[in-house]
Amino acid sequence: MDDMYFDPGLRPHSPWDYRTLPSSFWDPFYMDEFSHVGSEMLGGSTYLPPEQERQPYVDGIRVLVKYVGVIGISEPKNPTAVTHAITRVRSEQKATGSRKVLMNLIISARGLQMIDKASGTLRDTFPLEKVSYACVFTNDRKVFAFVSTNDSVSPAVHKCYVLKSKNQAMTAKALELIGRCFTLATEMRRQSVSAPMMEQLSFDRISKQLQERVQKYRLSGPDQAFVTAALAQMQRLYNAARSGASGHVSPGSAEYAPVHGADDAATQGLV
User: 251-267 pLDDT, tens per residue?
Assistant: First the structure.
């Protein structure tokens, strides 16, 4: 799952302020169709940003919020449990009179980041695949929360982070952005898996067709040896190209070794 998302350790490059985005960016707006999102869903919004609109989701979109507090939670995907957690955090904040800290919440296909507005300090980072739930607080729709899971320890630790925006519209847009990022990340994952798979299927199909033609036309010994050697060379080159991302293949390596058959010179000319 980790390769589904952009590197969450990298800070967003020039996050976009949500207020500067054109009104068309929010059309269509689907927030009324759902009140929560989670990484267990196939995306979070019914809207998949088209190619020409995806850069802000990659760079990150900045939303100004007030940090209310955080609390541990045992049922990270239970709406009732999350609502109770939000209520407890708000009650404790009011009881202690602690100040709500202004934060820039950066929402992107990388995940979520909270940056202290006054100091610019990165307070926390939440990879998108670790965000199990996000919702609006129905008793005060300016308040919303998300649950992040740390599964690097056993048992896993779930925390509910409670935030408050300037108005209900801003909260709705923040949740819509989180939902769209889930959807976009899911699509990116689908593409990253399907592209190599389609390449392999295409190569296998071509190889099979060539082998069938060799058998159908009953090539003579030297010709058949040549085609067989050529197919073997194609396979080596294909494997070398596929592994090129993880290591450089030099012309002197085994992948580029000349094949030997009935016509060495002609076969090597395929390289």
Answer: 333 333 333 333 333 33
pLDDT tens digits, 217-246: 776 777 777 777 777 777 777 676 666 544
Query: Which are the contacts of 213, defined by CB distance < 8 A and separation ≥ 6?
Result: none
So what's the pLDDT on residue 189?
76
Average pLDDT over residues 245-251: 41
To the nearest 10 degrees (0 to 180), the angle between helices 221-243 and 168-216 is 160
Take residue 5 and report the two structure tokens written for it.
Answer: 């998302």
Angle at 202 between CA 196 and CA 205, to 5 degrees: 140
Q: Which of 16-30, 110-124, 130-144 has the lowest mean pLDDT?
A: 16-30
Using CA atoms, how far residue 149 sits from 2, 92, 112, 201, in Å, is 14, 22, 13, 37
Rounded CA gap, 164 and 143, in Å? 4
User: Within its chain, how far is the Cα of 58 from the centroid?
Assistant: 10
Q: Is the pLDDT of residue 145 over 90?
A: yes
